[in-house]
Structures are given as structure tokens and as C-alpha cells.
């Protein structure tokens, strides 16, 4: 019987919808809660673990109390043991103490739920001594130690428990400076490597930046969008360097890593949260402009959680414009884009083929799928 260590970081990703771009640090967590942030990581943990329920006689989970693992296992009827009692408000100390237990007690594989900060915590204790699989639940996920979605992380765990022989390879643990991120700067640092059972069908790529040589294409895309803009309609400009060029060409203030709203080519609101977007657009028509995440292909659900299922219900599918340079699209090795909002109805609505703008009056057909 395989021994699986389960670590759920319950606060991972809480800052996304409220526009805080992460939850590293007690002060940011308190601010996120004050703005109405809710925990999503426990639900993502359950989505992942549901994939292995049918194998429950083949493994036992070792985990911490409450939302750090116990509650999710109990709800799914899994075979588990609580080996660490976490504080009511869990912290990095709880995570590291649980990880020390895994290291000292012969755990076969660690299944952890969180973001890049959680991956850093795992590396700080485990290094390369135990194989891991990450379940994506953070705002920013650059590290390629995670499944593409919680369900795909669960499918990879299914293979491991079922005895499928997979190569175990080292994958980067990278994270960004959240203070710099909130200040619209991306500062990425490599912290080390974790060992991951490798099956490319389920694991995400490392996030890649848009090549510098693509800047001319970004300008031409921006000009195409601006020339087609209609009067008296809200335009929601998503995060990323390619949408940024729209704001630059309009000579408007912008947030590279946030969501801005314009109307009649004037700024309405900058760096919006989910609630800001809903309040501004109300029941009026809004056109949404987004770019996929380089390397990973996410258009929704990763790095732009402000564009939540609640927001996307308000927007007609035909009013979603995807923009990307050829260089960025070529970095997405899956060959398709991903929309994952955790709302099945909205995800189903978003599926399908889109004409992705890749230059002035140039388009490329791309599939948006949910995994």
C-alpha cells in the first residue's frame, strides 16, 4: 500500500479575485479576507483527490488536521491518518512541520495543493528526497511541478498509485517577488528543483515570457484592436504585456499584471478586482481582451482570477477577444488554450475555437479547452 503525504495550503490563491496577485504574508492575507476573498484550494484539492477514490484500497494518506487535508479526505471517504494538528489559522510553520513528518516517516510521494510559494516551502524541507505532484491552486504558478489542472494532477497521482512506471525527473521551483508583482514588475527567481513523476499529458510547462522580438507584433495587434473599438462599450483589458500595448498606444495609465477597464478610449478604472469589474459593467455590454499565459496556455483561471466565473457569465462569448503573438503561441506545446474557472457551466461556455489576433488583420484559429 502506497503512503501518500497530503499537504493543502488552504489560503493559496485567495488574493486572486480581489486583485492582490497573491497571499504571501499575513498582512496581505488579512487584506484579502477584508476584501471578501474566499478559500478555493480545499475545493481544488477535492477535485484532484476525487480522481483516485476508486483506488482507495491501494493507498493511505498521511496529512494534517482540518483544511490542510483531513476535511478533504473525510468528505471523499479516503483512507487517511492525521499526523499533525495544525493551528486554526494554518501558516508556513504548519506546512514545514508536516513536511518534516513526511521526510522522516517513509512517505512514497507528496501530493501538495497550493501555488509557487507552497512549492518553495516543499523544496525548503524535502529538496530532492521524495517525489512530489503539485495541484495548482495559487494566483501565480510558474513552477512546472504542477498538473495542468487539479483533475490532471489527480490523474497523474492515479497512475502512480496504480503502479504505472513513470520516469521521475527534476523540475524547477521558481517564484516571483509578490511585492514587485503588485508594483507591476515581474522578478522571477529559481529556488531549486523537485522530483516529479513525469507524464507530459498531465504536467504544465514552465511559464514563459513573450519574446522581446515580438514587440512589433504586439504593437500591430494593439492598433488592430484600437481601430475596431466601438463607442459607449466597456473594454476590459486583461493582464499581460500584449494587452498592455493597447493601453500604451492609447496613452492611458495601465497595470501590466492587473485588469483595467476603458470606455470611449478613456480609462474608467485601473487594476480592478472581481467586484470592481462587476460594479463597473453592471448589465451593460463589455468586450473582454485577454492573452494566454506563455508556455502554459491559460486564458482564464491562472494569473487573472479577477476574471472569475461571475464576471465571465456577464460577457457574451463573441465578445471575448484573445490576442497573442506567434512566438507566444509557439511556446504552448499542448497546441490548445485552457479555460479553467472551477465552474463547469462557464467552462463549457468558454470551450471552442477562437480567432486569435496575431497581428494587424491577422488571425489564427485556436481551440480553448478546459484541461
UniProtKB/TrEMBL annotation:
<dbReference type="Pfam" id="PF01513">
    <property type="entry name" value="NAD_kinase"/>
</dbReference>
<protein>
    <submittedName>
        <fullName>NAD(+)/NADH kinase</fullName>
        <ecNumber>2.7.1.-</ecNumber>
    </submittedName>
</protein>
<dbReference type="GO" id="GO:0003951">
    <property type="term" value="F:NAD+ kinase activity"/>
</dbReference>
<keyword id="KW-0418">Kinase</keyword>
<dbReference type="InterPro" id="IPR002504">
    <property type="entry name" value="NADK"/>
</dbReference>
<dbReference type="InterPro" id="IPR016064">
    <property type="entry name" value="NAD/diacylglycerol_kinase_sf"/>
</dbReference>
<dbReference type="InterPro" id="IPR039065">
    <property type="entry name" value="AcoX-like"/>
</dbReference>
<dbReference type="GO" id="GO:0005524">
    <property type="term" value="F:ATP binding"/>
</dbReference>
<keyword id="KW-0808">Transferase</keyword>
<dbReference type="InterPro" id="IPR017438">
    <property type="entry name" value="ATP-NAD_kinase_N"/>
</dbReference>
<dbReference type="InterPro" id="IPR011386">
    <property type="entry name" value="Put_ATP-NAD_kin"/>
</dbReference>
<dbReference type="Pfam" id="PF20143">
    <property type="entry name" value="NAD_kinase_C"/>
</dbReference>
<dbReference type="GO" id="GO:0006741">
    <property type="term" value="P:NADP+ biosynthetic process"/>
</dbReference>
<dbReference type="GO" id="GO:0051287">
    <property type="term" value="F:NAD binding"/>
</dbReference>
